[in-house]
């Protein structure tokens, strides 16, 4: 049991995720979260001023956890082509793992993401920025053709949407999905290469 004085935002987010998994976004309440933690609902509100703020924080936490490795790939050294491929593979693997390992929670997060579109949009912009960093490195090393960096990054992200957009999650368990990803990657990288 948690006391009101030791309660942290992280504990609340973990409990909220559990409540969402059990009850779904339509039925989950702040009172349910407080009950799991053994505190009053006002204790939860001290950290999150509203149910909407709590749900937005849960969404942000989920997005951050699903993609924490991507930021490191975007800034590390090495050939841009290899890093971009690894970045895209890592993104696809993270999304597929979430969708296939915990489909109920994945569906819940899709609902939350729709409610918190500004949180999701900011996250998508961050991911395009990470791709842009890799593309810029490739252009500076003359491995990639010179082009508008941000436009190119967004095009790469959108061209691979089938492998990270939750709208396609039902197809990610298909045994040919990895081959289809590699076929798309081959087209993308051949368009990026300077030679």
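^ Assign residues to that structure.
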């Amino acid at each position: 049991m948690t006391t009101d004085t030791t309660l942290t935002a992280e504990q609340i987010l973990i409990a909220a995720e559990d409540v969402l998994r059990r009850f779904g976004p339509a039925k989950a309440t702040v009172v349910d979260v407080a009950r799991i933690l053994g505190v009053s609902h006002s204790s939860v509100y001290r950290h999150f001023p509203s149910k909407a703020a709590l749900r937005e924080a849960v969404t942000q936490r989920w997005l951050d956890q699903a993609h924490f490795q991507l930021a490191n790939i975007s800034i590390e050294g090495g050939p841009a082509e290899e890093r971009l491929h690894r970045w895209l593979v890592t993104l696809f693997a993270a999304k597929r793992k979430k969708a296939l390992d915990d489909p109920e929670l994945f569906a819940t997060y899709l609902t939350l993401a729709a409610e918190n579109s500004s949180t999701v949009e900011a996250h998508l912009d961050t991911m395009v920025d990470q791709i842009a960093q890799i593309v810029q490195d490739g252009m500076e090393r003359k491995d990639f053709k010179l082009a508008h960096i941000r436009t190119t990054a967004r095009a790469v992200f959108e061209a691979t949407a089938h492998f990270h957009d939750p709208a396609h999650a039902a197809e990610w368990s298909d045994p040919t999905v990895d081959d289809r990803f590699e076929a798309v990657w081959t087209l993308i990288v051949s368009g990026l290469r300077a030679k």
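The chain is about 75% helix and 0% strand.
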